[in-house]
Amino acid sequence: MTDTDRRTVMMAALAGVGVAAAAKLPAARRPGSHAALVIGHRGACALRPEHTLASYAKAIADGADYVEPDLMPSKDGVLMALHEPDLGKVSDIASRPEFADRRKVVTIGGQRVDGWFINDFTFAELKRLRLKERIPDIRPANTRYDGMFQMVSFDEIVDFVAAEAATRGRPIGIAPELKAPTIFASIGLPVEDRFVAAVAAHRYLRDAPLIVQCFEIATLERLRGHFPRDGSVQLMQLIDDAPLVPLDVAAAGGTTRYGDMMTRQGLRRIATYADILAPDIRALIPLRADGRLGTPTPAIGWAKEAGLLVGGYEFRPENRFLAADFKNGAGGDARNPNGSIAEIHAYLRAGMDQFFTDDPGIGRQAVQTYLV
């Protein structure tokens, strides 16, 4: 099952349902203006377990302009940093007998989903869990941190980033992704109003850089009404695989696919409510049959024509994730910083304005060396 298929099944399992011209902010609002922005993907998850304070701290120390928490609500509505609703892959919940009875097995579309889901746990219960590395086979060095850190809420992340910004004397942005709002709303846990209230509650976020991401159109349209374009908040439309339909569109009976959104007309439509386009990087420069980088797609130029900034997710430093142009002979799981830097340079040349990276230190090096 692909990552996209797995994500779709996991989200559907959580809900218990079947799978079915933008103005740029002024330079003062953009950390590292005149250069591409580096967004620490789940912190610095190539070097620390994702969505831990250690991961965010490492990202900031290594020069990230923004850190990125994925946000999902707990049973009692607290927004928590978690990429997938199943807690089993990233925490020690399987070893906790007090939670054994909350394990679920759900079959959807022929796929068996077995795990513990965030919407069955309160904030207090989630804080009892200890986090661990999600992909230990690829990133075994991160397992040394297993069990050291708690799951964190959006409120805790904002306070932490504010403290880091005050200590380091530079603005540090936050780029939260609201995960599957349509599905959470369907089970009585809408996220948009909770998120808007959380932003309003934090003094740091009144003028700190904030990028709000979502794969769903309706959520970003609603948020645009709360966050006008003349403030410090930018909205980012994430783009999934071309044949897929956004969850909110599908729920409303629509048929617009992500591929339709990447056309000239589709990008103009995105620009009416969002500031930034962010597809998978391979949708901007696809791979050829031999695994090497191909030719940049026209979507980059169309997006800029519409007034959108162009981002992309995500650069990862291990050989297995690099285009064939940039791999070395050290093995699939080996870190290859030079190859990752060269790959990022290729995308910067194509017109990328900002990017997600699992290793912000490598991303910072790529930006600095690209400008030389």
Give a written overview of the molecule.
With 372 residues, the chain is an alpha/beta fold. The protein has a single domain (3-371), classed as Phosphatidylinositol (PI) phosphodiesterase (TIM Barrel, Alpha-Beta Barrel). It contains 13 helices and 13 strands. The strands form 4 sheets. It has a 4-stranded parallel β-sheet with strand order 7-2-1-13, covered by helices on one side. It has a 4-stranded parallel β-sheet with strand order 9-10-11-12. Strands 4-3-8 form a 3-stranded mixed β-sheet. Helix 7 links the parallel strand 9 (210-214) and strand 10.
Strand order of the largest sheet: 7-2-1-13
Average pLDDT across residues? Answer: 91
| Tally of discrete structural domains | 1
Report the sheet with the most strands, covering strand number, pairing sense and barrel closure. 4 strands, parallel
Total DSSP helices: 13
* CATH topology type: TIM Barrel
The amount of helix comes to 25-40%
CA gyration radius, whole angstroms: 20 Å
Please tell me what the overall shape is. globular
The CATH homologous superfamily is called: Phosphatidylinositol (PI) phosphodiesterase
Amino- and carboxy-terminal Cα gap: 42 Å
What string, H for helix and E for strand, traces the elements in order?
HEHEEEEEHHEEHHEHEHHHEHEHEH
Low-pLDDT stretches: 15-33
